[in-house]
Amino acid sequence: EREVNATPVRSDGDLDAGLRPRSLADFIGQPRVCEQLELVLHGARGRGGTPDHILLSGPPGLGKTSLAMIIAAEMGAAIRVTSGPALERAGDLAAMLSNLVEGDVLFIDEIHRIARPAEEMLYLAMEDFRVDVVVGKGPGATSIPLDVAPFTLVGATTRSGSLTGPLRDRFGFTAHMEFYETDELVRVLRRSAGILGIDLGGDAASEIASRSRGTPRIANRLLRRVRDYAEVRGDGTVTVDTARAALAVYDVDELGFDRLDRAVLNALIRAFGGGPVGVSTLAVAVGEEPATVEEVCEPFLVRAGMIARTPRGRVATAAAWHHLGLTPPAGALN
Ligand code: ADP
């Protein structure tokens, strides 16, 4: 007899999927985006058409993929998922586009990383629901026009600034996702705790929420780490004390900064005297990709009031000096 393991191995990624909100009503926070989106979707439904192409922009983990799935669900449409880096050749995109059926949602994550030939193909598909497929090479190459079923492109990007003008212009609606307020993250945590069967006290929820960098994905991740701690070191109940102790183990400080956030602040202040310094120089100093520092780390440090962007580079604010236990120099930004 073969032994059968009844519990399939589940990664954090699977768990994330289980925690995704399924409808706009289920989606917590982002009231402006939700209201605008509701109008776009309602309008299209009323006319019996497909909604305009939609661009979702904002830092990672704020719910862009979840919203794309919700858009499809609210329209009763199927969703096809791909990403900018996966569309290296225009042919890859042509294959996806020609397989769409009317009303489908095509979700392209990290759309700012799409290769130029695929991007150019996308212009025509978005505007005229048509692609020109080039067959052959050199002087004998011919271009074959193909119809594409009317679809809605939902693009997600962590840096809408690096989208080319022509691509940005072809979206009928752009949603700017903001970091979540602590009370919104408390609601995210309560919902997730309910789904995962975690006994989460109210104060503990606030404690985790206030250290989640304004980001639901991080809130859910910290919740799971705190649960581990509560189960291994306690009776499974998540109290403020277990939350604090667990977050200390994972190097999350009172403001929610993780190792990389603190490394960036340290470099900015100790190595560069508080700036101004360019973001790529900072990235080299902490041994990270510039894109990670710029798209993941910096937006939250700016929102937390630790870093200011100036024309000459990044500058540490007085609050950042204080956070590291140092006295800010005279003239430090507030
Ligand atoms: P992004 O695509 O912006 O990186 P995701 O849509 O993948 O973010 O969201 C990450 C996780 O955070 C989701 O799996 C979901 O569990 C949670 N999440 C995001 N936004 C919300 C929200 N508004 N309400 C509840 N949970 C959310």
From TrEMBL:
Q: From the UniProt record, which GO molecular function terms apply? A: helicase activity
**For binding Mg(2+), which residues are annotated in this chain's numbering?**
T65
E.C. no: 3.6.4.-
Relay the domain remarks: Has 3 domains, the large (RuvB-L) and small ATPase (RuvB-S) domains and the C-terminal head (RuvB-H) domain. The head domain binds DNA, while the ATPase domains jointly bind ATP, ADP or are empty depending on the state of the subunit in the translocation cycle. During a single DNA translocation step the structure of each domain remains the same, but their relative positions change.
**NCBIfam families cross-referenced by the UniProt entry:** PRK00080.1, ruvB
The function of this protein is: The RuvA-RuvB-RuvC complex processes Holliday junction (HJ) DNA during genetic recombination and DNA repair, while the RuvA-RuvB complex plays an important role in the rescue of blocked DNA replication forks via replication fork reversal (RFR). RuvA specifically binds to HJ cruciform DNA, conferring on it an open structure. The RuvB hexamer acts as an ATP-dependent pump, pulling dsDNA into and through the RuvAB complex. RuvB forms 2 homohexamers on either side of HJ DNA bound by 1 or 2 RuvA tetramers; 4 subunits per hexamer contact DNA at a time.
Please identify the protein, giving its name as recorded: Holliday junction branch migration complex subunit RuvB
Q: Which gene encodes it?
A: ruvB
